[in-house]
Amino acid sequence: RIQVGMEKRTGMSNKKRQELVAYHESGHAIAGALCPGFDEVGKITIIPRTNGAGGFTLFQPSDEMQDSGMYPRSYLESRLVVALGGRVAEELVYGIEEVTTGASSDLQNVADLARRMVTQWGYAGDALSYTAWENPQNAGMGATKMASEETQEKIDEEVKAIVATAYARCKALLSENRQLLDEVTNTLVRDETIGNDELKELIKKYGAKPLEFA
Prior knowledge:
By secondary structure, the chain is mainly alpha-helical. The chain has eight helices and three strands. It has a three-stranded antiparallel beta sheet with strand order 2-1-3. The protein is globular.
């Protein structure tokens, strides 16, 4: 269950902040809407929350996948692209030097997911063999090492490669759909919240095509 906090109307008068948050959330939403097989976008909002979030994009996961707990690699790769959407949108619009710390939790989620893909789910089998290198109940700082230092270096390299691929896909996707990114952002600044139907209409208006996983 996603905890998004209550609406907080204070701090909404700063237009620059509104625009920044709108671009960030638009990046997440567009990436999610254009990644095949990913969760439906429920809504996007730039209304601050009491939990500290400047805004959020609400996704509606598939009941079937949630119930089974089984996610295909394509879904996990899409999840990485979507998580990077806010950070990449900021970079495209404001430049690398002006990227904010707003993507901190997104980047932590990316690092965690990519590492689990390598160490627990065998998605780097060609390089590391098809085995688990970490126990999900015994991961993180202070965990018992199941791999040699050499293997740990290979794990790090495979994690970096997965994240680099997701970042490149996200940057290409948002760059190709920059007009859509601007339009969704402007609509958010004006209306504060966008629903799924309106987002789909904007995607249709600009003829945005789904991301293709090479």
